[in-house]
Amino acid sequence: MAQSIEAHDLNIYYGKFLAVSEVNLTIAPRSVTAFIGPSGCGKSTVLRTLNRMHEVIAGARVEGTVLLDGEDIYDNRVDPVDVRRTVGMVFQRPNPFPTMSIYDNVVAGLKLQNGRTKKADLDTVVERSLRGANLWEEVKDRLAKPGSGLSGGQQQRLCIARAIAVEPAVLLMDEPCSALDPISTLAIEDLIQQLKTKYTIVIVTHNMQQAARVSERTAFFNLAGIGRPGQLVEMDDTQTIFSNPSDRRTEDYISGRFG
Ligand SMILES: Nc1ncnc2c1ncn2[C@@H]1O[C@H](COP(=O)(O)OP(=O)(O)OP(=O)(O)O)[C@@H](O)[C@H]1O
Ligand SMILES: [Mg+2]
């Protein structure tokens, strides 16, 4: 089910503003890749081009190619809705549908997808997804209660359950732990380790220890200056990035010396 991702010569624009230039990267199936780099260097922007969420923003466009298991997701014949189902996304802030129950939050994507699915089938998906997101035990007795009644960490795991309910091949996570306490953060990190046996995962994080703990590969993005486009400086095995990076800018960033 997991799929590889290849991006070639991505130039990503908001209107006339070139936000990120010349990104080339390859991501292996069933691996965890961390995107790191200073604020504004384009990590979220690049992430959104990997499932065609970038073009949803008015005036935004992308040049270049993104291949999902060798298929160009920007080909004219490809439906962006299919792409977003195959490449799921978890946003930085937990965004459960506030008036929907926990149950309905989990199956929200599924209902859109199939029109009508049998209740028993939905029940199975809900349990499997909530177990997958490490949330089942905490919520199994209150599935009909609103998702907004959960704690921040539980809401983030609910959003992960919603994302995995449709069985994507790739899971993009944009700072999934930025609002979480250390215990919830560790729960999400454990979860990522479990999920990577089935999914290809890309995680944006500002937490270097987290990148070092969860990922096999790390991509360091940087910005040459204000108003200049962000760039992918280097991508390598996580251990190499943190112990012996090729580029001086990477070393300065990971050791806390900027500029
Ligand atoms: N919707 C938007 N419209 C216009 N410009 C945008 C938009 N979103 C991001 N940008 C610009 O694109 C550049 C990259 O932003 P992006 O959000 O990808 O950075 P980031 O690396 O994710 O930063 P952070 O670590 O703060 O989340 C920035 O200059 C930002 O101002
Ligand atoms: Mg961001």
Automatic annotation (TrEMBL):
Gene Ontology molecular function: any one: ATP binding
UniProt KW keywords: ATP-binding, Nucleotide-binding, Translocase, Transport
One protein family per Pfam: ABC_tran
NCBIfam families: 3a0107s01c2
Name this protein carries in UniProt: Phosphate ABC transporter ATP-binding protein PstB
ABC transporter domain residues: 5-248
Highest taxon, organism lineage: Bacteria
Keyword ATP-binding set for record: yes
InterPro entries from the UniProt entry: AAA+_ATPase, ABC_transporter-like_ATP-bd, ABC_transporter-like_CS, P-loop_NTPase, PstB-like
